[in-house]
Write a structure and sequence with these properties.
Blueprint (H helix, E strand, L loop, with lengths): L1 H4 L3 H17 L37 E6 L3 E3 L2 E8 L10 E7 L5 E8 L9 E9 L5 E8 L6 E8 L10 E2 L18 E2 L5 E2 L5 E9 L2 E9 L5 E3 L5 E3 L5 E10 L15 E9 L4 E10 L4 E4 L18 E8 L4 E8 L6 H7 L1 E2 L1 E2 L3 E5 L6 E5 L11 E9 L4 E3 L7 E9 L7 E2 L9 H7 L11 E7 L7 E9 L4 E8 L15 E6 L3 H4 L1 E9 L2 E6 L4 E6 L11 E6 L5 E10 L7
């Protein structure tokens, strides 16, 4: 307890300066794993190490993975295609790996669907999307790299045998490429076509991520037959000073309920979401707005901001996401890639694998219309083992912390609801922080810094004596006009391992909730050996952290609940489950 709670202004300053150094020196840390190591791309591991390998997150038996390419539901089967290196554990030799499932939890790994093999993708078969055409025929659009300069075109592939329930084999017709960039487009920044949607005029439309100078762009293309495509005179949307837009995603969301909508839905009571993965900082941002179907333009709402000051799907290690409409359960599901944070390529080679997919999430529009809500798909609950109801209505005074026992703390699902009687002890929000990212504020006001209303939350993947731990917590501030709720997932003390290149950020985001009436906050964390995936306030704010403890592994991991604020916190309910391992074939 003393180790966790000790703090002083000097010690806090040291932590802040250290974190600032890490952030500045690792500004590429999130995407350092994208570096190209030609001499290591085909370096096979002697064996696959399981120390930090996840139990219930999606990952293949070995080697490197990144973007989830084209998730889809077809004839009773869920398909996940993803970028994969079949020869090693760093980026390179990329193919479209292919896995299938009946429930999005238990998977069968198949042979890759697409290999670079022809002149239109000889140097790479990169990300794309799937579309189900009206005659129930699936088609994949993907980016092909045609030369050593990374010049990019857009290709398509179709199943070789529609009667095969798993669609094992795919054909790349010889009339590829379908779309070649014109002279106005940066040929090396022209990738990741979206799922297509059909307009009222009967034309198909897709968006392709790009940039012109400093302006990020969602280029719009139209086609009547899905073969001949023409670029629109203007992009669907663009924004200055946002850099290259990767992995765009454009889809409608209902204003009435949590149901998902097909990309071609043309009914009333909808808004639209445009998500882009920003190449400049490797984070994902989205806006909510309206789609002018007559002008073929997307207009974000006034309170929806493009770029690094805007909304994020996940405020942690989460990138290159792709959503799809699931007609089986009438929902929209988003997949996202979470890469490794032990950023030296030797680490990946030694352990024999790199990268996982985050838990698939149902996504819908918050009733306020201002943001999305995300929540783990309901099928995940089938992996919960016997339920442990740890406690109800337990009060935590300042400095109190207790251990949640009876579960496997290294592989668990925890849901906890906190309440408090007053907001009076909320700390003042320093106006100087207004221009900082939430992550920077979390670095200043971490879990060890005593406060008023918070910090309180979970201490995950902790060693017995707290030499290692990853806290996930809330802290409430009193701003000039309202209260600001900071949610943090702080990896700075997640490991004793000495590795200057390891990325251990204090990930954080603000939670848009009104505490005046309810005075409650909820938290759900999915803990899986080297990942802590957390959902605040019912999925309003999501944060995924990758961590690599040396002591807090397997049976030696511990889970705690804590309060380090002067306001007493009540744990209204805490439910925890050990998680089983899904079947992977």
């Amino acid at each position: 307890m003393e180790l966790f709670m000790k703090s002083s202004s000097l010690w806090g300053l040291e932590i802040y300066l250290f974190c600032l150094f890490i952030v500045l020196s690792n500004i590429n840390g999130v995407f350092a794993s994208h570096n190209i190591f030609l001499d290591l791309q085909s370096s096979s591991a002697i064996s696959v190490k399981n120390v930090h390998r996840t139990g219930f997150h999606f990952q293949p038996p070995k080697y490197w993975i990144n973007d989830p390419n084209a998730p889809m539901y077809y004839n009773g089967v869920y398909h996940l295609f993803y970028q994969y290196n079949p020869k090693g554990s760093v980026w390179g030799n990329i193919v479209w790996a292919h896995s299938v499932s009946k429930d999005l939890i238990n998977w069968i790994h198949l042979e890759p669907a697409i290999y670079p093999s022809k002149k239109f993708d000889k140097y790479g078969a990169w990300s794309g999307s799937a579309t189900i055409l009206p005659n129930n025929k699936p088609v994949i659009l993907y980016t092909g790299v045609v030369d050593s300069h990374d010049s990019q075109v857009q290709n398509y592939a179709i199943p070789a045998n529609l009667s095969d329930p798993f669609l094992r084999k795919w054909i790349k017709p010889n009339n590829n490429p379908l779309i070649v960039p014109d002279n106005s487009i940066n040929k090396t920044k022209f990738r990741d076509p979206t799922t297509a949607w059909m307009g009222q005029d009967g034309l198909w439309r897709i968006v392709i991520g790009s940039m012109r100078k400093h302006r990020g762009m969602a280029l719009l293309y139209r086609s009547r037959d899905f073969i001949k495509w023409a670029k629109a005179q203007h992009p669907l949307h663009s924004s200055p000073h946002t850099g290259n837009w990767e992995c765009p995603d454009f889809f409608p969301v209902s204003l009435k309920n949590t149901n998902g909508l097909d990309a071609s839905y043309r009914g009333k009571n909808v808004k639209y979401v445009l998500k882009n993965s920003l190449d400049v900082n490797r984070f994902e941002y989205y806006t909510i707005g309206m789609y002018d179907t007559k002008k073929d333009r997307y207009i974000p709402d006034n309170n929806s901001i493009d770029g690094s000051k805007g909304l994020r799907l996940d405020y942690g290690n989460f990138y290159a996401s792709k959503s799809f409409y699931d007609p089986m359960k009438n929902r929209r599901i988003v997949w996202g890639w979470t890469n490794e944070s032990d950023v030296l390529p030797d680490d990946e080679i030694k352990k024999g694998w790199a990268g996982i997919q985050a838990i698939p999430r149902k996504v819908w529009l918050d009733p306020s219309g201002k943001q999305l809500i995300q929540w783990p798909i309901e099928e995940l609950e089938t992996l919960r083992k016997q339920k442990i109801i740890q406690l109800n209505n337990k009060k935590l005074s300042k400095g109190e912390m207790f251990e949640v026992k009876g579960i496997s703390a290294s592989q668990a699902d925890i849901e906890v609801s906190f309440s408090f009687s007053s907001l009076n002890k909320a700390e003042q929000f320093d106006p100087k922080w207004a221009d900082l990212y939430a992550q920077d504020v979390c670095a200043i006001k971490g879990s060890t810094i005593q406060g008023g209303l918070g910090p309180f939350g979970l201490v995950t993947l902790a060693s017995k004596n707290l030499e290692e731990y990853t806290p996930v917590f809330f802290r409430v501030f009193k701003a000039q006009k309202n209260y600001k709720v900071l949610m943090c997932s702080d990896a700075r003390r997640s490991t004793m391992r000495q590795n200057e290149a390891m990325y251990k950020p204090s990930f954080a985001g603000y939670v848009d909730v009104d505490l005046v009436d309810t005075k409650k906050l909820s938290l759900r964390s999915l803990i899986d050996n080297s990942v802590v995936e957390s959902f605040g306030a019912g999925g309003k704010t999501c944060i995924t952290s990758r961590v690599y403890p040396t002591l807090a592994i397997h049976n030696n991991a511990h889970l705690f609940v804590f309060n380090n604020g002067s306001e007493t916190i009540t744990i209204e309910t805490l439910n925890a489950w050990s998680m089983d391992v899904p079947k992977m074939h």
